[in-house]
Request: fold
Amino acid sequence: MQTNYTKDRVTMIRSNNMSKDIIEVINMYYHSVPFLNSVIIYLLSNLFYYDSWKYYFKMTIKDKKEYCYVVVSGNMKSIKQHSNIQHNILPSLFLILLTLAILEVVSDQSVIASEVLPNESLFVEDNVTSSTNNLSANEGNKPDSFPKIHTYMSGEKGIFVNAYLIETANGVVVIDSALTVSESKALKTQLDSISKPLLAVLLTHPHPDHVAGVTYLVTPSTTTPSSSTNISIISLESVQRIMNATEKAKRIQWTPIFKEEWISKWTYPNQNLKDKEAVTFDGLTYRVYDFGPGGDSDANSIWIIENGPKVAFVGDLIFNGHHPYIADDHILDWLKNLDRARDLLANITTIFPGHGEPGSMELINSQERYLLTYIDAVKELSGGNSTLTEEAKRELTQRMERFLPGAGLTFLIAQSADPVAAELAAMTTDKH
Reply:
């Protein structure tokens, strides 16, 4: 299944067996209210014969707020919008019943999900910026079940980066942070609103949008009085090493653009783990997996919760609904790492990406399709050269925008073109 987002958040899906693969609404996140102010659902049926009945499902979420999303999974494939739809009374009746079932799910703020384990539950709450996704490992549908996973999504000026706050009974562990001063302060405000101590900060990779805001996270406050000297800030050694090597250069590069919004002093990890080592906080165990180069960074890692909900935090190995940064000369390693992640995360229910909404294992396939499409386009437009002309970059941008309509961070398409072209050209040279 491929989910296509447009600017008004329209998702089109086709299912070969809607009765078996009922749409699984994993999360509906929203900006400022406990749930969506308005959800308009249109169910359309198209009756024709091709091995099995086909149904079409269209969900449109409209409201004045910026952030809302739906994650859908199952044995489904994306489709283009069809016209001249022929209706039939039986599928229409079925779809009416399905509509009522979905509306009941919405009103109860609950989830119908065959992939969620029987002892897991999911709740939706409000938070400062986008959404809260609460996964409980032990206590059914009680609102105070733990752990609760809160998502902070930065806005466009913070390049849509995600930070995750895992709340347990006695504290909070945060995975990654934010880029700018304003977003980092807002993330800190969300942390303080939980009114529990910060137990640790875990980092997936060393890019500024994920690490700069740690400085604000560990700043003492009334509700989180601990300082960075006694809060565990944990990463791979490679993540810390690249942070040290790049902070000054990043500050020189980006301060003229971000001005007072650039965080001038980073706070570094005070504990390093090796591949497959684990740490435990408030009874919840987090294990890190070193993926090395091949995400959007030279040092990538995945954090998996071992004794709670089946979730993984993959950093910038995956961009969901946004164009990725591919300028670190490792697009081919990225494809290899996606294969590795596919095996590692085989039993995972929810993947939490570095940018964009959480989703199922389909996010890995979507990221792979994007990278392969980008590679094919760069090969063609570069003509085997290590750079693209400005005209070719404009064409590349148009092609990738058509491939992923309505996605954010479009400026990264052209920015990544020359590094990818150089990598592909070098690979061709090595073969000769």
